[in-house]
Design goal:
95 residues, flat, 41% helix, mainly alpha
Length: 95
């Protein structure tokens, strides 16, 4: 038990020193976007960079089928190839 005191004391000291070291002093916390340096012009620029362009959203115009059978029928009727997307797990990658 004695040999465990020093590591525990060092861990406690590290946690105390590491907590809140970068926090702004009380009363100096920025609360709005302008105080954080994000004015409306910058926000519009960032928004334009992040949102997909119309050409990048073309996949949304495809009439996706949710079953193999309905996809096979649609591809046969339109004389187009069938893309079969198969995956294992959650569609959002949350496994």
């Amino acid at each position: 038990m004695i040999g465990l005191r020093l590591p525990l004391a060092l861990l406690a000291a590290a946690l105390l020193v590491g907590c809140g070291g970068d926090a702004p002093p009380p009363g100096k916390t920025p609360t709005d976007a302008a105080a954080k340096g994000l004015d409306p012009a910058k926000l519009a620029t960032y928004r334009a960079l992040v949102l997909p362009k119309a050409s990048e959203r073309a996949w949304e115009q495809i009439e996706w089928q949710t079953s193999y059978e309905s996809g096979l029928r649609a591809s046969s009727a339109q004389q187009k190839p069938l893309l079969l997307w198969v995956m294992n797990g959650h569609p959002l990658g949350c496994t």
